[in-house]
Design brief:
single chain, 183 residues, alpha/beta, Rossmann fold, six-stranded mixed β-sheet, three-stranded antiparallel β-sheet, 27% helix
C-alpha cells in the first residue's frame, strides 16, 4: 500500500475506540490477570505481529515475575479474510507443566487462538489462558460461546485496525481502534 493511500484509509476511517479508552481497557485486563496469575510464574507468549503493542503495554502493567516468549501463526497474512493456519514461528520455549498466557490483538472467529491453545496443551502445558485486546461481536465463533479468558474491548463486526491490528500491513501503530470505510 502506498503512503498516500494509507493516509486516506486512516482519514476516512471511523474511530470506534479512542486511545484513552484502549489504555483503560489494558489497565483493567492487567488487573484481572494480576488477580488470577500474580502468585504464579506464568509463561507469556505474544502472538505476533498483532499482539505486539497490546502485549508490550500489558507486560509493563503486570507487577509479578513472568517469562516472555513469542509465536507467530496467521490465517490472514495481508488478506481481510482468514485462510489456512500458517506457522511462521512456533513455540520455542518448553511449556510442560507451565501456566501459559497467550496475548493477541483480536478474537474474531477464534480459529487461530484455539489452535494456539490446543498446541500448548498438546505440548504439556498445565493451563493455557488467553488475553485479547478486542473481541468482535458476532455468531461465527469457532464454537458457540468461545471467548478469551481476558478481553479488553468488545467491538462490532467490522474490519478494524490500530493498536496492533493492521490494514494491509499498515496502521498497527494507530493510537485507537478504527473501522475501515466500506469494510
Amino acid at each position: 500500500m502506498e503512503r498516500d493511500e494509507a493516509l486516506r484509509v486512516l482519514e476516512e476511517a471511523e474511530c470506534l475506540v479512542d486511545r484513552q479508552t484502549v489504555e483503560a481497557a489494558v489497565d483493567r485486563v492487567a488487573a484481572e490477570i494480576t488477580a488470577q496469575l500474580g502468585r504464579q510464574n506464568p509463561l507469556v507468549f505474544c502472538v505476533m505481529h498483532g499482539g505486539l503493542i497490546f502485549c508490550g503495554q500489558l507486560l509493563t502493567r503486570l507487577p509479578f515475575p513472568l517469562e516472555v516468549g513469542y509465536l507467530h501463526a496467521t490465517r490472514y497474512g495481508r488478506d481481510t479474510t482468514g485462510g489456512e493456519l500458517e506457522w511462521l514461528a512456533g513455540l520455542q520455549t518448553e511449556v510442560v507443566d507451565r501456566t501459559v498466557l497467550l496475548v493477541d490483538d483480536i478474537l474474531d472467529e477464534g480459529v487461530t487462538l484455539k489452535a494456539l491453545v490446543d498446541e500448548c496443551l498438546a505440548r504439556g502445558a498445565r493451563q493455557v489462558l488467553t488475553a485479547v485486546l478486542v473481541e468482535k461481536q458476532h455468531g461465527r465463533k469457532v464454537r458457540p460461546g468461545y471467548r478469551a479468558d481476558f478481553t479488553g474491548l468488545e467491538i462490532p463486526d467490522r474490519f478494524v485496525f490500530g493498536y496492533g491490528l493492521d490494514y494491509d500491513g499498515m496502521w498497527r501503530n494507530a493510537a485507537g481502534i478504527y473501522a475501515a470505510k466500506g469494510l
